[in-house]
TrEMBL record:
Keywords: Hydrolase, Magnesium. InterPro entries: HAD-like_hydrolase (IPR051400), HAD-like_sf (IPR036412), HAD-SF_hydro_IA (IPR006439), HAD_sf (IPR023214). It comes from the Archaea. GO terms for biological process: small molecule metabolic process. PANTHER family: 5-AMINO-6-(5-PHOSPHO-D-RIBITYLAMINO)URACIL PHOSPHATASE YIGB, N-ACYLNEURAMINATE-9-PHOSPHATASE. Its EC number is 3.1.3.-. The keyword Ribonucleoprotein does not apply. This is HAD family hydrolase. Belongs to the HAD-like hydrolase superfamily. Residues 222-241 are annotated as: Disordered. It holds the Pfam family Hydrolase. NCBIfam families: HAD-SF-IA-v1. The lineage of its organism: Archaea, Methanobacteriati, Methanobacteriota, Stenosarchaea group, Halobacteria.
Length: 241
């Protein structure tokens, strides 16, 4: 028996990831912009400020390209380069993360299932359709189309209303402490943090559960989860104490 009435998931880097040849995509962006290539994708990503801005992805990428151009001594229009990158990217080129299909099936066996993404529908719909999520979940909320996105409570409230469940009985699974865990806390949901690095500490946030892989998720739904493994609630070590 599940300890939750419903489960919901974040989308990007929780259920799925892009399935592009990133190097080829990077080169195509320069070609589209008519700019001689410089740098590598691995150099660009650390220069971006946090998660993408759903309202201004071109500006978000442009800031990274501006920093990269300065490091390479190049005089380019970083916004035009970012716009070219966006124009050649195919949002439908996504794949489930390992364990995602089993996690969705386990959640569906326990109760209604939702997806809450911070992106707008016109960007995220292609991913949803490519993954077949319309047939796998009961509700999808595109917070990018709402007045407030995660970590505000409104998107979570829309989600629990669509699933017809109480917030306190709902588990939200996501990879971001500052958006997913903080947002779930603000809206009264339980949270499971899917961390990318097993050495990463949750502090100063306090997720209810910590997962190193979605393969661990089906066991989390069990009433007895953590009784012997000690993995259910966030430990002092995971809080960074």
């Amino acid at each position: 028996m599940s300890r939750f009435a419903a489960v919901a998931f974040d989308l990007d880097d929780t259920l799925c990831r892009h399935d592009h040849d990133v190097t080829a995509l990077y080169r195509r962006a320069f070609e589209e912009a008519g700019v001689e290539p410089f740098g590598e994708p691995e150099e660009l990503w650390p220069l971006l400020d946090g998660p993408p801005d759903p309202d201004d992805r071109v500006g978000y990428l442009g800031a990274g390209f501006a920093r990269l151009a300065a490091q390479h001594g190049r005089d380019v229009d970083p916004v035009a380069l970012a716009a070219a990158f966006e124009s050649v990217a195919d949002e439908s080129r996504v794949a489930f993360l390992p364990g995602a299909s089993d996690a969705l099936a386990a959640a569906a066996a326990a109760g209604p299932v939702g997806v809450l993404t911070n992106g707008p529908e016109d960007r995220q719909r292609a991913k949803i359709e490519a993954l077949g999520l319309n047939d796998l979940v009961d509700a999808i909320v595109y917070a990018g189309d709402l007045p407030r996105r995660k970590p505000h409570a409104e998107p979570f409230e829309r989600l629990t209303a669509a699933l017809s469940v109480d917030a306190a009985e709902t588990l939200y699974v996501g990879n971001s402490l500052s958006y997913d865990v903080a947002g779930a806390h603000n809206a009264g949901l339980r949270s499971a943090w899917l961390r990318a690095d097993p050495d990463e500490a949750a502090a100063p946030y306090r997720p209810d559960y910590v997962l190193d892989s979605l393969a661990e998720f089906p066991g989390l739904l069990s009433e007895g989860y953590g009784a012997e493994s000690g993995e259910s609630e966030t430990t002092e070590a995971e809080e960074g104490r």
